[in-house]
C-alpha cells in the first residue's frame, strides 16, 4: 500500500534500499504494484534503475537490489543517482 499511496501524492516516490539479509517484501507484492505503475507509465524499477528482478530462482524476496517506485522518470533518476553517489565510496 505504501507504494500505491505514491500515486495519490504526485510527485512522490517510495523505495527500499538493498540489504544482505532475506526479507523486505515478497516478489508477488512488488509484481502487483509494478503492474499498476507500468499501466500509468510511472516508474517501477530496482534502486539502480534496472528492471525489477521478479523471476528470481533463488529467492522470493526483493532485498538483493531494492525497489524504487516514482510518479515520474526525472524523480526516479534523481533518487537512483543519489543512492549510487552515497554508496560509491
| Rg of Cα set | 12 Å
- Shape, per Cα inertia axes: globular
CATH hierarchy: architecture: 3-Layer(aba) Sandwich
Task: Report the top-level CATH class.
Answer: Alpha Beta
Structural class: alpha+beta
Strand fraction: 5-15%
What is the total domain count?
A: 1
**Overall pLDDT confidence:** 91
- Low-confidence runs: none
Summarize the helix and strand pattern as letters: HEHEEH
What's the β-strand tally? 3
Structure description:
With 89 residues, the protein is of the alpha+beta class. The chain has a single domain, classed as D-Maltodextrin-Binding Protein, domain 2 (3-Layer(aba) Sandwich). Helices cover 36% and strands 12% of the residues. It is built from 3 helices and 3 strands. It has a 3-stranded antiparallel sheet with strand order 1-3-2, sandwiched between helices. The protein starts with a helix and ends with a helix. The mean pLDDT is 91.
Write the layout of secondary structure elements.
Layout (H helix, E strand, L loop, with lengths): L1 H5 L6 E4 L10 H13 L3 E3 L21 E4 L2 H14 L3
Antiparallel strand pairs: 1-3, 2-3
Name its key features.
single chain, 89 residues, D-Maltodextrin-Binding Protein, domain 2, 36% helix
Structure summarized in a few sentences:
With 89 residues, this protein is α+β, with helices and mostly antiparallel strands. It has a single domain (2-54, 61-86), classed as D-Maltodextrin-Binding Protein, domain 2 (3-Layer(aba) Sandwich). The protein is built from 3 helices and 3 strands; from the N terminus they run αβαββα.
